[in-house]
Design brief:
This is Large ribosomal subunit protein bL25. Keywords: Ribonucleoprotein, Ribosomal protein, RNA-binding, rRNA-binding. One of its GO terms (cellular component) is cytosolic large ribosomal subunit. Belongs to the bacterial ribosomal protein bL25 family. CTC subfamily. By secondary structure, the protein is mainly β. The protein folds into 2 domains: about 90 residues, Ribosomal Protein L25, Chain P, CATH 2.40.240; about 80 residues, Beta Complex (RNA Polymerase Alpha Subunit, Chain A, domain 2), CATH 2.170.120.20. Helix content is about 15%, strand content about 45%. A 6-stranded mixed beta barrel has the order 1-3-2-6-5-4. The protein has a 4-stranded mixed beta sheet with strand order 10-7-9-12, with no helix packed on it. The longest helix is centred in the N-terminal third of the chain and has 9 residues.
């Protein structure tokens, strides 16, 4: 029925570090789903969760908890600082059609005018989007843009029903001239010429 990945979770009845360690030894990730006035503590199969979140930090999943279904958005993942394995996950319970605040990556496409480069000022933007239709990224097309051009939040092309939460005048991408590269043999002369 749902196009969202399904995670079969079990309600956690034990709490504390010992319980979390036992869950992790059993290849389960402790987690919590909150929202709509309720909080439920869960254990989620680590491998299944990893496959869902590895390429999408705003993954929408269908949690199957003790026979019931709940749409939920991955809100936060804690990873081990060295091993990078999943230690804990927070989900936000959502309903179809409900709008949620999420961070979405900015992706630059195209080539700016010759002799220019682009600088990304905002690598992510916070948007309000339908929980069931969160964009994976927002593209900024810099094709042919000249030096001095500034792409602002107000210039972003957002999908239908998606609103950006940042100030409309916030710079996102700036096109600037490529700095002339000094000749390798004489860096001191190049500095003198620049002044």
């Amino acid at each position: 029925m749902s196009d969202n990945p399904i995670l079969v979770a079990t309600t956690r009845t034990e709490f504390g570090k010992g319980a979390a360690r036992r869950a992790r030894r059993a290849q389960m990730v402790p987690g919590v789903v909150y929202g709509h006035g309720e909080t439920t503590h869960l254990d989620i199969p680590e491998h299944d969760l990893f496959l869902i979140v590895r390429g999408n930090k705003n993954a929408l999943v269908e949690l199957k908890i003790d026979g019931t279904s709940q749409l939920a958005l991955v809100k936060d993942i804690q990873r081990h600082p060295v091993k990078r394995n999943l230690l804990h996950v927070d989900f936000l319970a959502v309903k179809a059609g409900e709008k949620v605040d999420v961070e979405v990556a900015i992706v630059v496409v195209g080539e700016a005018a010759p002799g220019t480069t682009h600088n990304v000022e905002e690598h992510t933007v916070t948007v309000k989007a339908p929980a069931t239709d969160i964009p994976e990224a927002i593209e900024v097309d810099v094709t042919g843009l000249e030096a001095g051009t500034v792409v602002r939040v107000s210039d972003l092309v957002l999908p239908a029903n998606v609103e950006c939460e940042l100030d409309a005048e916030q710079d996102v991408v700036i096109i600037s001239e490529l700095a002339a590269e000094p000749e390798e043999e004489a860096p001191a002369e190049a500095e003198g010429d620049a002044e």
